[in-house]
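Anyone have tokens for UBA/THIF-type NAD/FAD binding protein? Sequence:
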Amino acid sequence: MPIPESPAFSAVIFDRRDPAQSQEIDRLIASGITLRDAVVPTDDLRRLRPALTDDELDEPPRWAYFAWQHSIVRILGPGLYRRVRLDRNRIKITGDEQERLSSRRIGIAGLSSGYSIALALVLEGLCGHLRLADFDTLELSNLNRVPLGLFEVGVNKAVAAARRISELDPYLSLEVLTDGVTATNADEFIDGLDMLLEQCDSFDMKVVLRDSARRQRVPVVMQTNDRGLLDVERFDLEPDRPLFHGLVDVDALTDVAELTPEQKTPLLLKIIDARQMSDRGAASLIELGRTVGQWPQLGSETLFGAAMVAAVARRIGLGRPLPSGRLRTDPDDLLALLAEPTPDPVPPGPAAPAELRPDADPLTTILHAASRAPSGGNTQPWRFRAGAARLIIEPAPTPSRMDVAGRGSLVAAGAAAFNARVAAAARGTLGPWHIHADQSPVNVEIDLTEGGFDPDLAALYQPMVARTANRSPGRRRELAAPVVAALTAAAAAEGAVLRLISDLPRLRALGEVLGEADRIRFLSGGLRQDMLDELSRPGLDRPDIGIDVRTLGLGAATSLLDLVARPPVMQTLRSLSGGSMFRDMTAARVTSASAVGVVVIDGDRVEDYVRGGAAMERVWIAATTAGLGVVPLSPAFLYARTPADLATLAPDSTGELADLQGRMNEIVGIAESQAPVLIMRFVHDPQEAPRSLRRPLSEVVISSENTVGTN
Ligand SMILES: Cc1cc2nc3c(=O)[nH]c(=O)nc-3n(C[C@H](O)[C@H](O)[C@H](O)COP(=O)(O)O)c2cc1C
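Reply: yep, here.
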């Protein structure tokens, strides 16, 4: 297209590295024009995320000369300019998408409403080249809807629009046609465009432009003001599509240019579907030229329509599906949808206290104690067969991926068995206990013998009842030597080893590993769903299964869970290798701990995990006695033993998980023949933790006296 020399409609960019251009800059400055500096300080540039490379930061500034403003402005180079202006949108419109959109060429015919559209397109970076055509000059009466100003009145509309656009993005390539589009230049105007926005009043031009666009396979979009009509004709995909969706039979018209205004009006009304006009729009139409001089157009509707067209440009520009068709989006209609906001489903306040039965008959006390045991996601993966003479606890593996080979359930059952032993000891009915790993189902049998006292275990009854997962931040302080001794002895008493990590360098290393494992857990569809399934939202889910979201200690961030629960949100993060927030949250919990303890067992057989569960519970109770806050930190790979196990967790991240598992074993000191049972965060000065609930015993006790022992 020929670019007219004057009037000036776009900035001229100068680069000081070119001596001739440098001279021109100096000449302009010396001529007394206004000089402005819009270069962003390097310190501010350094705050951009992800960080700019030194090469990017070194991009030399340019000088943009705006003749119509009698001004020259020192601006960032094109790369930095774009980055600073648009980079914050980079998740909504990814860097790659921005790049693709920046090569799009869009034409706009008719710059009254077209200017708002151009503005929306350029604000978002939806094109790299704009071709604007309008023969008309801006008048005061246009300022009802054209967001230009008095300084542009009397200027050609396309020129005025281009100038403002250029002030927004001086690097944008612009072409201007001050004669407007005509039957003779329509083909040339549309040539090379990726999309045409037809915003003309003239019926003739509507036909001419569509006819040419269809021949050149360019999609046409139109937006009209009254009740926001958005119209899309995908001639790029449907080259045989009738113009105007076939609403007007254009082929039947012999010569469009010969039509009288009286003949054109009904055709225009057909195109905009007058039946759908607003009442006042329709009344205006009838009164046009009588009690009202010109066609009414509301500025707000124009801006709203421009937003719709920008959405279309994004879709078409990125090759996302969008058929031909039309849609009305009337802000006034939308107000009919005004409604009370949905209240947050999570009411404030702690969870209800758990049921405790220390005063009941011994068996009931023992069963309640067993069911108070901790379990991953509070799934309570156990069944109890109860009789006067013995209690049998069967692990009941959960569908959760992290419960690899039911090992998490074995650990929980081991903890339940330990609690049962403590309660039995306190009630004087503790006999020997056995793990029947060879039976089906696997089970733990505890004999309940009259007169069976064990003062050491009995002393643990109260702290066992008081034990909770405490997710409060607490304070990091060194564990006193007697506490370390008590925790270590607790693990040893049940045949396990407790590895304690309290020095910051190792906590940092462990935090990185556990954090990254949690990031993977959040970003992997299956693991994430399992985790969400374990949450109990007050008023929505059963309160006695799962982790009450209020006990997570997320506070206001609880609503983040609603976002985490939306797969497309998390898929977007995944595609961006994002989600570092999840990693950092866990890492911070690790480094802010007084210590992290890992209960380790020799071997990975069924009985090892059951014993490990008992050891973990005994350590937890000992820590509670010492006034520490305890919460497990479970990486996804905790119970995986083989590559095949890891593949069941997150098939796409098997390698990463294997690497993380190896790093953890090294940091903690877990030999290949050993297995971790639970990783626990210990803190001082914890806040009081809300108590979690348990299912009623009637749901977990599956047989009475008579059938006990029939397993
Ligand atoms: C094997 C196992 C793994 C666990 N993993 C986590 C965990 O990753 N994060 C967490 O906050 N709590 C974890 N917990 C704690 C449980 O959520 C908690 O024990 C359960 O909700 C019952 O609450 P209570 O311990 O306060 O009685 C785990 C518990 C067990 C037994």
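The pocket of flavin mononucleotide is lined by residues 374-378, 408, 411-412, 468-469, 471, 547, 631-634, 678, 692 (CB under 6 Å).
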